[in-house]
Amino acid sequence: MSEITYRKIVVERFGGPEVLRTVEATLPEPPPGHARLKVLAAGVGFTDLMARSGDYLLQRRPPFGPGYELVGEIVDFTADGPRPAWLTSGTRVAVSLTKMGAYAEYVTLPLWQLVPLPDGLDPVTAAAIPLDHLTAVSVLETHGRVRAGDTVLIQGASGGVGQALSRLGALLGLRMYGTASAPGAEELLARHGVTHIDYRRQDFGEVLREREPEGVQAVFDHIGGPGLRKGYRALAPGGVLVSYAFAGRPGHMVADTVRGAVRVKAMNLRPGRRTALSMVPHEIKAGHDWYRTALERLLGMARSGRTVPRIGAVEPLMKAADVHAALERREIAGKVVLTTEA
Ligand SMILES: NC(=O)c1ccc[n+]([C@@H]2O[C@H](COP(=O)([O-])OP(=O)(O)OC[C@H]3O[C@@H](n4cnc5c(N)ncnc54)[C@H](OP(=O)(O)O)[C@@H]3O)[C@@H](O)[C@H]2O)c1
């Protein structure tokens, strides 16, 4: 075992895509309970763009590496107890990180975070799974506790998490409404049986009042603001509003997120309906077993074709700044995956 020299992308200072820089670094031998991975693919999420701008609740200080999810090949590891049969050099694993840093050629990670890829699942598809789909599991199962036949509203059903919610919601047998404005959204949402509401032209509260007068069992929200109260009012007795993000004012996102979270907590004090907050990086840290079981299940579902993420673009890792710029211009629909292969 020896030191590995590699390149990674770092946010040098908060700002636009131009603050993403390539730097060289070295990885020493893995400490006990850790593995070094050669990264094959890293997923890009909207959260990466927020963190780069300095507008993210779980913000790290620059310089830091963005990226919450990756697929890598185990280079070497230092076991600190009994090891499962799959834990060998060369095994491909998927990971959802808790502190970002996936935009790199190599990473060192704790062994508990590695989830082996099922045979035949390609790294690009697998790298598009962890964060969006674990968030969907957290929202639907942990906090939403929805059941087959329940009617739900998915805000932003065309987005990364919104599409994961739609895919898993369809498998669960939910009746789904989804807000979206992207071109082709109606068709995209219809693939998972989601009834489209164009939030630029329609008021989702009015649509639901008219079509679901008894109310819906759950609303999944990543916008916050006045829509929170409206979503809460759309709930049937016993229904739940699950918030997993707050779209605040640029430059004030952290304060707006805290304000939104406090509102959601306060709404939960009222009787008759529930509210809940989903924050997956914390949930992973607090529940290693939940994380491993859920990610293993999700990767298996992707392998069997039951949840296939929509890949919008596959780009070299070193093009991360161009990818962020294209996403900000809304030029790419679907998940972007960065790869380290030449
Ligand atoms: N809680 C957690 O642990 C967790 C985990 C992952 C992500 N997140 C957060 O979840 C949010 C979404 O992430 P993502 O990666 O899914 O982002 P994304 O792919 O950019 O999707 C966001 C979607 O929101 C929709 N949207 C924008 N304004 C809207 C409005 N006023 N009403 C309804 N929909 C609207 C957009 O739809 P159109 O383009 O169709 O308009 C877009 O598709 C981010 O804030 C992210 O940080 C939280």
UniProtKB/TrEMBL annotation:
Pfam families: ADH_N, ADH_zinc_N_2. Residues 15-338 form the Enoyl reductase (ER) domain. It comes from the Bacteria. InterPro entries: ADH-like_N, ER, GroES-like_sf, NAD(P)-bd_dom_sf, Zn-ADH-like_protein. This is Medium chain dehydrogenase/reductase family protein.
